[in-house]
Amino acid sequence: MLKLEVTCDPGEREKVEETLKKWDLPSYFEEVRTNGKKALKFTAFVPDFVINDFVNDLMKAVDMRRGYASITWSQVSGKSVKYSSVTRSLERYRKHWTVAGIESLIESANSQASVDPIQLTLGAVASMVALFGLINDNIVMIISAMLLSPILGPLYGFSLNVVMGRGRDALNAVSSILKLLTAIFTSAFVVSLLLRLFGLMPAGPTREILIRGDSGIVYILLAILLGYAGIVAIVSRIPEILAGISIAAALVPPTTVVGISLAMGWWGIFLGSLRLTVENVLGLLIGSLLGLYILNVSPRSYYEKKAAKIYTQRTITVLGLMLAFLVLLEIIK
């Protein structure tokens, strides 16, 4: 339990009382003088697991630009029977993200958002495994490639940094995604050229290649769902390998087909797989952002939360417009 004290202008009394009533928190106030001016000081007891959301609401009611305005709280030792009913009534808020939980998510995301040479090498190896699976119609090898791909970390890093309003880190994550996709494409292209030189490539595209050379609106919707499910899974502490496979399934095989078809001169498949890859990237990014937005993952302070919300909405709008353009192309193709 926390003891919270709010010092505000007398004209803000009604707004503060409405906020306290909204959260069903018992309180009392007294008139005080601070810096020679009359002010009101509210005192309330707040369960620690709702303090962030409650303070965010309070900051909408109190003009913190005034020099004497303040919102402070401190830990209260022991348990008060008088306020136990408040704690019980607010139990539903325990599922909201705590400061420690948010910081843990950020640390995890930033540690995975950047890629090193080892991860790029894994991406290249995953591409080669997928290539052999695609040209031999071997679904087991294609699934094995998905297990190797480290694409989940940068995607997770992008979406979390966007909803936290950390633009530079989000751009670094996008750069990591592009690096991994480039490694996958380049590896597939070079190996396909070598196999073609030695006459080891099929004369025509296999069934698995044809599947990845066909884009469509349904694949866009599927990518959004996969992005949403993957992020929800990882923040819910579901093993990363399960979430990672679903993400890799939408990116590794199509990107590998882009390299194969370019090396073989299969231009129709090249254009289809390239469009499918771009659609999947945008769909995954949008789906992951929606997942964190729905889960109410956001910064701690009111002003940071407000700025991050605007940043998230703008990012989703830009990605949505790009995806809408691709949808239009799908409709008229």
- Segments where pLDDT lies below 50 for 5+ residues? none
How many runs of DSSP E, i.e. beta strands? 4
Report the average pLDDT across residues: 83
Topology pattern, helix = H, strand = E: EHEEHEHHHHHHHHHHH
What does the radius of gyration come to?
Answer: 26 Å
Count of DSSP H/I helices: 13
Quaternary structure type: single chain
The class by helix and strand makeup works out as alpha+beta
Beta percentage is 5-15%
What is the domain total for the residues?
2
Descriptive report:
Helix 5 (117-135) crosses helix 8 (167-197), helix 7 crosses helix 12 (267-294) and helix 12 packs antiparallel against helix 13 (302-332). The chain is elongated and about 90 Å long. The chain has 2 domains: 2-95, 2-Layer Sandwich (Alpha-Beta Plaits); 99-332, Glycerol uptake facilitator protein (Up-down Bundle), CATH 1.20.1080. Strands 2-3-1-4 form a 4-stranded antiparallel β-sheet, covered by helices on one side. The chain is built from 13 helices and 4 strands. The chain is an alpha+beta fold. The protein starts with a strand and ends with a helix. The model has no long low-confidence stretch (mean pLDDT 83).
